């Protein structure tokens, strides 16, 4: 007597298996670290904008806590400018990527 268990797979899962077999060897999947490095290389202004935003926010909060209101206001305005720079860098990067693909 055999104690084999028969498993039935849903039809959708079998379709995916067949699709993978039909496609053959697919390009390697990049890791999160590799993807981050590629994105930074493609558009280096975005990480710079993020760092500038973080630095301005940190300096603004520090000055706010120590009571230096004038410098705190200046840093908060700098943060807004850095955020604007980051958004513009994102938009330019997307436009450049889109035009490269055409």
TrEMBL record:
Instruction: Tell me the ranges covered by the HIG1 domain, including all copies.
Output: 17-102
Primary localization: mitochondrion
Q: Supply the alphabetized keyword list.
A: Membrane, Transmembrane, Transmembrane helix
What subcellular locations does the record give?
A: Mitochondrion membrane
Q: List the GO terms this entry assigns under cellular component, sorted alphabetically.
A: mitochondrial membrane
Record organism: Drosophila mauritiana (Fruit fly)
* GO annotation (BP), single: mitochondrial respirasome assembly
Instruction: Specify the superkingdom.
Output: Eukaryota
Transmembrane regions listed in the UniProt entry: 45-64, 80-99
Recorded protein name is HIG1 domain family member 2A, mitochondrial
Transmembrane listed as a keyword = yes
Q: Which gene encodes it?
A: LOC117146700
Gene3D superfamilies found in the cross-reference section:
6.10.140.1320
């Amino acid at each position: 007597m055999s104690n084999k268990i028969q498993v039935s797979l849903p039809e959708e899962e079998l379709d995916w298996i067949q699709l993978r077999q039909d496609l053959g060897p697919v390009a390697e999947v990049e890791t999160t670290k590799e993807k981050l490095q590629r994105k930074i290389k493609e558009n280096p202004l975005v990480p710079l904008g993020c760092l500038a935003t973080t630095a301005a926010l940190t300096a603004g909060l520090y000055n706010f806590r120590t009571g230096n209101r004038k410098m705190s206001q200046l840093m908060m305005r700098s943060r807004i400018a850095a955020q604007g720079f980051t958004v513009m860098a994102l938009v330019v990067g997307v436009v450049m990527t889109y035009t490269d693909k055409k």
